[in-house]
Amino acid sequence: MKIISLTTDFGLRDPFVGIMKAVIAGLSPEARVIDITHGVEPFHILDGAIKLWQATRYFPAGTIHVAVVDPGVGSERRPILAQLGAQWFIAPDNGLLTWVMEEAAQSSDDISVWQLENAEYFLPALSHTFHGRDIFAPAAAHLALGADPETFGRRLIAAGVSVTGTALLARLDSTRAVKISEGTWEGQVLLADRFGNLLTNFRLRDFPHGLAGWEVEVAGTTLAAFHANYAAGVEGEPFAIFGSSELLEIAVNRGSAKQLLSVSAGADVRLTRKNSSAK
What we know:
The protein has helices at residues 16-27, 45-56, 98-106, 131-144, 257-261; strands spanning 3-8, 32-37, 64-68, 79-84, 87-92, 111-115, 155-157, 178-181, 184-192, 198-203, 214-218, 221-222, 239-242, 247-251, 268-273. The chain is of the alpha+beta class.
């Protein structure tokens, strides 16, 4: 039984998610469909890219991920199928797969990409506004049934090629924090989650010894503490924490850092080693 995941900005008020599931069920009724989220901020490709990256590492090999955050639907942007290591991704070629492709490259996973062109794997009538229904969902169902990826369309990226060789694909601008010196890093807030925690682009892998001895400044506010869990924070006082996605977060115990600090995506974040003389 194949697993197909869905990540979209469709929300749940309209019938779009249910329609995609109906298409999959009609073609591949044995497939198990799992919703990652349909709460991606509308049209916000980076938000979708991060949420997809947060979740997909926990799915088993062979999972087919369908991601639709597609403000360019019906335009010249291409629909693509990507094999990243042992998992599959079907999405528009608009940068939505940037984070998962970077992760695959760092893990030395094989990367192969095909353009979805074979109309045999689409619904018979294509709209210009709902490729999630007409292209992505049926393509996922056919892949789950065992269709050869080589039959979906031309191969764009050959297996084993690193992300640095994927200029054919749309990529989001780099969102990695930058090391300015041994004692200074600069980055930004990427997004706020439902609880108002501010996720930044500082990654735990870059700070293997933690942040003891570092100051965190966000939008001009220096945080008083770094904690290992949310409950350790003083209520009403913002602090830094590495969350479950191993991204540095700005949080408030039982509160919203977003509201307290009046901070949104794109705000500057700076890490400085205390008493550092590094230039």
